[in-house]
Write a structure and sequence with these properties.
- The chain starts with a helix and ends in a 12-residue tail after the last strand.
- The chain is mainly beta.
- It has 2 domains: about 120 residues, Umud Fragment, subunit A (Ribbon); about 210 residues, Jelly Rolls (Sandwich), CATH 2.60.120.
- The strands form 5 sheets. Strands 1, 2, 3, 4, 25, 26, 27 and 28 form an 8-stranded antiparallel beta sheet that branches. Strands 8, 9, 10, 14, 19, 20, 21 and 23 form an 8-stranded antiparallel beta sheet that branches.
- The chain has 3 helices and 28 strands.
- About 10% of the residues lie in helices and about 40% in strands.
- It is globular, with a radius of gyration of 23 Å.
- A hairpin with a 2-residue loop joins β20 and β21.
């Protein structure tokens, strides 16, 4: 037997021993998940699926907690995420969750966004190609994009790189291979490292949804301070943008800083080095001109970054999406679902592949038997499971 095989065997023995000890002290068990309904949170379709450690706990869960439910008349428990709480009216509209007729605000804890592009695992030149129009100003060397964009560069498209294609309900598996989705999604997050050191320069990050363009502008003034602005634009490039919010920031040193722009549930948020400085809600999205049937499809380039007025450097690009709930099933889709005082709405993270509360309606509190806390098998995939993550505090 090879040393590697011995390590795996000993690892399995240790895990089994720990589970026996835990079961004798506190109520824990292990469930195997072998469906796609919770991917990528739980990778059930990999060979053999994944096994989760479950704490048998009947206390009331919070929104977005993971739970194990054994529904009346069913023999096999299911792992899902709680999205609707007792006595609420919940509905799924355009992929979003509405509670009491409203989307959740940016201050509400929610699941982490799901990565759909990460330059460590995917080809950045294929995702953000440097076109002939870009070539005089852009170069990609050793993982860093450099933009030399003097003031008056000319056409806007020359000074920005745009994401190629649509963004769908894709995700990365445990081996960092992309699992291609089929359903276009709305809510996106763009995160990158930005070095903006020349006074008078402007950096730009853009996200689009339907017929709207949402842009983060970072202007480095001659006084060395940054002005951050969140603006909303339409398809008419000659129209003045709608300024949704601004904030003054200290520069906090030269070199790279982590910048994050998110558009989730009709709310825009800007963070720099883990500190949230701007969050603004906006009215419903406008349809794209080409969307004549008003399906809500996003036709404009979904993501772009760039700038002008100096030399800017970008690296560490990550593009993520919010959970997207497909309009399938009988419950909480065409109209709001009123939950009973002991009722919960449970949904799968991989909505397009999940049989869940959209099919059977609410789940009773007495049917919730535990909380998944950790992936325990295979050992190479061992990791904690989490519910909602609090957002950074807003610091003005």
């Amino acid at each position: 037997m090879s040393n590697r095989a011995k390590r795996w065997l000993w690892g399995a023995v240790i895990v089994a021993a720990l589970l026996l000890v835990l079961k004798s002290i506190v109520p824990y068990g292990v469930y195997k998940v072998d469906t796609a309904s919770m991917e990528p949170t739980i990778l059930g379709t990999r060979q053999g699926g994944e096994s989760v450690l479950v704490h048998y706990d009947r206390s009331a869960p919070a929104r977005f907690d993971l739970v194990v439910a054994l529904r009346a008349g069913e023999e096999v428990p299911v792992v899902k995420r709680v999205v609707g709480l007792p006595s609420e009216r919940v509905q799924l509209v355009d992929g979003d969750l509405l509670v009491q007729g409203k989307r959740l605000g940016p201050e509400v804890p929610r699941p982490r966004p799901i990565t759909v592009f990460d330059e460590r695992w995917a080809d950045p030149q294929a995702a953000f190609p440097i076109t002939p129009e870009n070539q005089p100003f852009w170069k990609l060397e050793q993982g860093t994009w450099t933009l030399a964009a003097p003031a008056g560069i000319g056409p806007r498209l020359a000074s920005e790189l745009a994401f190629r294609g649509d963004v769908k309900d894709s995700y990365f598996d445990a081996e960092q291979s992309i699992v291609e989705g089929e359903i276009p999604v709305n809510d996106l997050v763009l995160e990158l490292d930005l070095a903006q050191d020349e006074l008078g320069s402007r950096a730009s990050l853009r996200l689009s949804e339907w017929g709207d363009i949402f842009e983060l502008l970072l202007d480095l003034g001659q006084d060395g301070r940054l002005t951050a602005s969140l603006v909303r634009r339409g398809e008419d490039s000659s129209a003045a943008p709608e300024v949704l919010g601004t904030a003054k920031l200290e520069r906090n040193g030269a070199g790279f800083h982590r910048v994050r722009l998110s558009n989730i549930d009709n709310a825009l948020c800007f963070e720099r080095d883990g500190v949230r400085s701007l969050e603004v809600a906006y009215a419903e999205n406008r349809y794209a001109r080409a969307d004549r049937l008003q399906t809500g499809h996003s036709i404009l380039p979904r993501v772009a970054f760039g700038g002008a007025g100096g030399t800017l450097r970008f690296k560490g690009l990550v593009l993520a999406r919010d959970l997207y709930y497909t309009p399938r099933g009988e419950f909480a889709v065409g109209e709001a679902l009123p939950l009973d005082p002991d009722g919960y709405l449970l949904l799968g993270d991989n909505s397009a592949a999940s049989r869940d509360g959209r099919d059977w309606g609410e789940t009773r509190a007495e049917e919730l038997i535990g909380r998944p806390v950790r992936i325990v098998w295979p050992l190479a995939h061992a990791r904690p499971l989490e519910g909602a993550v609090p957002p950074p505090l807003l610091v003005r």
